[in-house]
């Protein structure tokens, strides 16, 4: 194989070709960057030849130069194209944690783009012409929407929990019901965050039952806080008892220094319960129950960017804002812009809420999904007769560790092909430039249009067309 080495075209010759120039043009990178990658690729070919490992096309053939350009293009597209990219979510799981949770509303996107492109009043008070606080910007709309006294935004809800515990309960006891010591998504465990924060966890009750008297007995001079954790991602049924926040609030009146804090997990501004979806308490109803603090995520059922929102008593929030960790956990201008854009939709009422994709998806009725699925199905049938397509009832999930008990009634489009296995179709959909993520069940691909935007439907149809055409022209 060593003899073949001298047939490898020289870098210099390759650089004179149209293919080389076209690649540099396509990826808009300097020639020397393309040169580097090409040198490395040829080095690899040489090494493979020397070690007798070469399995590519014959070096002297035209196929070999074609092979070089295909390889180089693939290397360049891997290195110079973004790796984090949009995907089409056809799973029906609305807040898919692996797929980036909540897609943002146009209003939120507009705000982010405007603030990203220019300078902004992030920390500048425009009325007084002097330094301002980034916290103040979004606080106003949050308070208006929830009735809270004060608010603060940090990176995510995990950061919010950590800050609250560290700033307000370090080296003191925090009482938590055993039934609420949850683990969310494998990476967030209340007990671990508590340990990191330096607060001392005092567990009360049993896994299935905690009574008010359990809290009462645990309370002592060392107690800084009673914490309630919303059991977002599981639901206990049967012989269970937990104590609602308002009962805890009323009994601890004799302990004015003990704070009651509820980690709400998702936290909703929109009352889904009223529409028969789940049992999430609204943020304002939790605040009304008299708790001192609540925290929740920005990118779960709120439908905004990743953020942790802390709301509650003004004096307590002021202590959090002054803590050194506040600087460590602070959010950037784009998060604040996206969050404010999202909140502005809520202040507009029903019409604005319908513009928040996550809320629209959760609230979409089964009939709406059916109508879209049927139209989609006809379009797909029109473009390829060999597919077996049907539409059937199924369920979608809310996801993101929220409303685990809720199964949203939906319709799915089932797609089968007599010769191509569903796992192969799934893989090809996933491997596309704009990947399409679907469900696979037994021998069929399932598409749940609940989470597919209308303008994405045509892209899915194109994808099926290409996959099936290619499978039969090349193989
Ligand atoms: C999701 C969740 C968290 C973590 O929130 P992130 O915003 O993902 O950091 C914390 N607590 C509860 C109860 C949750 O549901």
What report would you give on this structure?
- There is one protein chain.
- The longest helix is centred in the N-terminal third of the chain and has 20 residues, at 31-50.
- The chain folds into 3 domains: 2-80, no CATH class; 88-97 and 360-474, Aspartate Aminotransferase, domain 1; 106-355, 3-Layer(aba) Sandwich (Aspartate Aminotransferase, domain 2), CATH 3.40.640.10.
- The mean pLDDT is 92.
- The protein has a 7-stranded mixed β-sheet, with helices on both faces.
- The chain has helices spanning 11-15, 18-27, 31-50, 62-80, 106-117, 134-146, 157-169, 190-197, 212-218, 245-251, 283-288, 314-322, 325-328, 333-347, 350-353, 357-363, 366-383, 422-430, 454-473; strands spanning 88-89, 124-125, 130-131, 150-154, 173-177, 183-184, 188-189, 200-204, 223-229, 259-265, 293-297, 308-312, 388-397, 407-416, 436-437, 439-441, 444-447.
- Helices cover 43% and strands 16% of the residues.
- It is α/β, with parallel strands linked by helices.
- The structure holds pyridoxal-5'-phosphate.
- Pyridoxal-5'-phosphate binds at residues 156-158, 161, 184, 188, 229-230, 232, 263, 265-266, 297, 308, 401.
Question: What does the secondary structure layout of this molecule look like, with pairings?
Answer:
Elements: H1 11-15, H2 18-27, H3 31-50, H4 62-80, E1 88-89, H5 106-117, E2 124-125, E3 130-131, H6 134-146, E4 150-154, H7 157-169, E5 173-177, E6 183-184, E7 188-189, H8 190-197, E8 200-204, H9 212-218, E9 223-229, H10 245-251, E10 259-265, H11 283-288, E11 293-297, E12 308-312, H12 314-322, H13 325-328, H14 333-347, H15 350-353, H16 357-363, H17 366-383, E13 388-397, E14 407-416, H18 422-430, E15 436-437, E16 439-441, E17 444-447, H19 454-473
Parallel strand pairs: 1-15, 5-8, 5-9, 9-10, 10-11
Antiparallel strand pairs: 2-3, 4-12, 6-7, 11-12, 13-14, 14-17, 16-17
The chain binds pyridoxal-5'-phosphate.
Pyridoxal-5'-phosphate binds at residues 156-158, 161, 184, 188, 229-230, 232, 263, 265-266, 297, 308, 401.
